[in-house]
Structures are given as C-alpha cells and as structure tokens.
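A reminder from the course coordinator: this example appears on the midterm review sheet, so study it carefully.

Given structure:
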C-alpha cells in the first residue's frame, strides 16, 4: 500500500462496548502519530456511513465478518480500503485482532501492508410484467434466493447471457463472490474459490435429485434468475443481513459492480494460511 495515511475512519459495531472501548484506545494511538481519526458507529438502519468531513485514506472496522460485510456494502463506490479488527467469531474477512492491532497499524502507517481488490455483486430486480427495474443493490459475500418458512421446494429458471442453464428445484440458490465462497456457499457444498478471481459461484441448496451441480462462471455475461410458479414464499437475501420477498415471474439480474472492495492485508498475510487457521483446510499428521 503505497499511500501516505493522513485520515482514518474507525467504524464501530453498533451496541458493542468492547468495540467502543477498543476504538478509544486505537484513536488515541493514531492521534499520537499526527493522523486525523474519526469514529462512527455502524447502525443497521443507516444506508450510508458518515465517514467524516474529509474522505479517509482507509477505514478500520471493529467487529466481526458481519460488520465487515455491512460496511463494505455501504462504502462501495468510494474506493476506500478496509482493514478489519476481529471482535466476532470466525473473522475470515478481518486482518487483525484486539491483541495484535498495534503491530498491524504500525505496518499500515509504514506502508508495509498490501491491498487486494475483491469483486462485488450488483443486482437489479424486475417485477413480473415490468420492463423498468423495481430496485437494485449490492452484496459483498452472496445473494441468496431461497424458500420461506415452509419446507417446500421452489423452482428457479437460471440464465447466463442468452443461454438458459435450466431450472433448479431446490430450497434455494446461492450466488456468491470468491470472497463469499467461504461463507454460506461452502456450507451448501460449493467450492472454495481464490478471492482474486473474477468469477461468481452458483450453489444450489438441497437440489432435488441433484440435477444442478455447483457452477463457477466468469462475469462476461449477466446472470438472470426468474421465479417460476412455486405456491410458496420466495426471498432474496443480501449477505445474510437484508432481504425481501419475491413473487412468481420476478426476475433478478446479477453482474459485477463497477467498483471493487479493497481489503488491507499485513505483509505476512496468506489466503491458504488463513484457510488452515479457520478450519477450512485440515492438516493431518
């Protein structure tokens, strides 16, 4: 990361006292190094984060993977790199811990960190019989089209560009980024995909007769998912945090957002090492 750091925004998980206390410690440490620091709380009801009067050179997120996903969606488009301090459970998206943050920030200010670019999904919803979009949005990890509370299969028609991939009868379909492949996708039987690849991953959830295998596709074409008559509830969920109901005939088009998310890593950071440390790859003697 070859940039002079002069402004940092600390984003604190809402309602988390540990995050607030740590933010005060980090703020004092940063301020002592003549770097301007701004603290903001990430409340779930806000769509846009107040990053301060001046655009920060980086955003440090104090929380878990869920907070990282929420912040990534809210600041996408600004080109500001993110650094996560893990206060959650898995912490796969975060880079440091409450015990090691000082060394990581020393590396950051000394330009010893690296930055990776991660693709972001962008969706557009078209309601049945309408040619104008109903709404649109973004997801950093995954978009999921899934059934409601009743244990009943739903049917989805899946197209890639002008090619129909067929219909999938399942509990749902996960469309994930490579970054999100370590989340719901791998739990559903999908592959782990190296995060720098420019692809999305389709993973059916409990497909009937296993007629639709997990699939990795480039962003060369738009993915379209149409809800077929199902006689049941169908939902679209964004990163497992936001969602809304879909109806028969609704079509969701999915592609790559124009602006990627930038994640900050320490110089010693390794994707494979992190997979092993978080239990995705088991080593046996």
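Designed residues:
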């Amino acid at each position: 990361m070859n940039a002079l750091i002069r402004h940092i925004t600390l984003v604190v998980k809402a309602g988390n006292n540990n995050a607030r206390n740590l933010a005060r410690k980090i703020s004092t440490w940063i301020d002592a190094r003549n770097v301007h620091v701004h603290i903001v709380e990430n409340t779930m009801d806000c769509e846009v984060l107040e990053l301060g009067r001046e655009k920060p050179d980086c955003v440090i997120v104090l929380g878990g993977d869920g907070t990282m996903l929420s912040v990534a969606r809210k600041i996408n488009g600004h080109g500001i790199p993110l650094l996560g301090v893990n206060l959650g459970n898995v912490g796969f998206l975060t880079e440091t811990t409450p015990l090691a943050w000082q060394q990581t920030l020393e590396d950051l200010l000394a330009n010893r960190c690296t930055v990776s670019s991660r693709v972001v999904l962008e969706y557009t919803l078209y309601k049945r019989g309408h040619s104008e979009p109903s709404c649109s949005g973004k997801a950093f990890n995954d978009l999921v089209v899934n059934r409601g509370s009743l244990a009943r299969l739903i049917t989805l028609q899946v197209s890639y560009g002008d090619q129909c991939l067929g219909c999938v009868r399942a509990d749902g379909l996960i469309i994930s980024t490579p970054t999100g492949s370590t989340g719901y996708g791998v739990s559903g039987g999908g592959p782990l995909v190296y995060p720098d690849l420019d692809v999305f991953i389709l993973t059916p959830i409990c497909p009937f007769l296993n007629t639709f295998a997990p699939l990795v596709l480039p962003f060369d074409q738009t993915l379209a998912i149409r809800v077929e008559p199902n006689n049941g509830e169908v939902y679209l969920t964004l990163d497992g945090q936001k969602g809304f109901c879909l109806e028969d005939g609704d079509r969701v088009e999915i592609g790559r957002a124009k602006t990627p998310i930038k994640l900050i890593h320490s110089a010693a950071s390794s994707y494979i090492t992190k997979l092993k440390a978080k239990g995705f790859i088991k080593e046996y003697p």
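The first strand starts at residue 7 and ends at 13. Residues 29 and 121 are 36 Å apart (CA to CA).
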